[in-house]
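Task: sequence in, structure out. Protein: Xylose transport system permease protein XylH.
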Amino acid sequence: MTAIAGFRDMVTRNVRQSGIFIAFVLIVLLFSFLNSNFLSPGNLTNIVLQYSYILILAIGMVMVIVLGQIDLSVGSVVALTGAVAGVLVIRHGAPWWVGVLAALVVGVLVGMWQGFWVAYVGIPGFIVTLAGMLLFRGMTYRVLDNVSLSPFGGTYYDIANGFSTNGWFGGYGVDVFTLVIFAIAVVGYAVSQWRTRRGRIAYQQVVESMPIFVGKIVAIAAVVMWFGYQLAQYRGLPNVLILLAVLIMAYSVITQRSVFGRHIYAIGGNLNAAQLSGVKVRVVTFWTYVNMGLLAGVAGVVYSSRMNGAQPSAGNMFELDAIAAAFIGGASTTGGVGRVTGAMTGALIMAVMSNGMQLMGVPQSIQQMVKGLVLLLAVAFDVWNKRRADAR
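Result:
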């Protein structure tokens, strides 16, 4: 009975995470059925380029939400950091890397400012970042003098619009370099999953059967290689996809395997217990907001590069997309639950829905309504899961 109970817990404890992957697949299949161009190489590349900054923001946002806080200012910070880069690179002719560095520094300073008020003064993150949303938007208008700046051009433009390819094109117009990179990623994923499985077995934890384990790896590898093949047929590997891959791998390790990441989950799961256990709550909270500011700076660089300019209205509603991505991807409204991979899936669902509805010519008003309903259902599912767990 113990083994059966353990297996049942293994299957049900991550039902939200598993369900969101299934939902993502179903949404992709739906739009591919409604529009034959949805899974074309050009459109898949377009999805990566257009929504990369939301995925970057979602990484930091899920950490803030796991902590039990929120950040409503990230859209304004994206605008401000892009504005600073624009003034330096476009107006003053500074090298592209100076603009990037300045944007990141501004993002870190913003994170330190908000982290101080939340962690050390004790003001709720909702209030601090709501004030920040207004404050940094106003600063953006001041920095840009209420006008847009363009174009960046050159290397800065290539950050979000360029492609990493070495010209290894086969006779059928497929970039071999892109396929090699995706193949390496698949092998790395398989090795990581195998090591994780062996570790769980060593600690006598319940794992799925070998056929199921192998089938899961094969299925994921097939999807990843198919996606890589589609990109290889178009223009190769987007630079921004490499940046995203690095961030996802790094923050997956930080959140799941580092002391800092475990402390974030401990604080969000039970603040009092974390304090009694010796967790430095204020320090962890402060650096979580600093990290959010840094990632908002990265997103600001990517967005301004993609738009090839800096606009006072940039980043409008980005905070809501990032928050929605985290909640749709499995984060809990009460903190302590959520993963980077889940947030990425949630962000991809938002991106796929937006892109699919745009291809179908759905009015913007209807698109907003659909996104709102999806977010509401995701949170309702979280509440339902908690009540079911409490009833056991």
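DSSP finds 16 helices and two strands in the chain.
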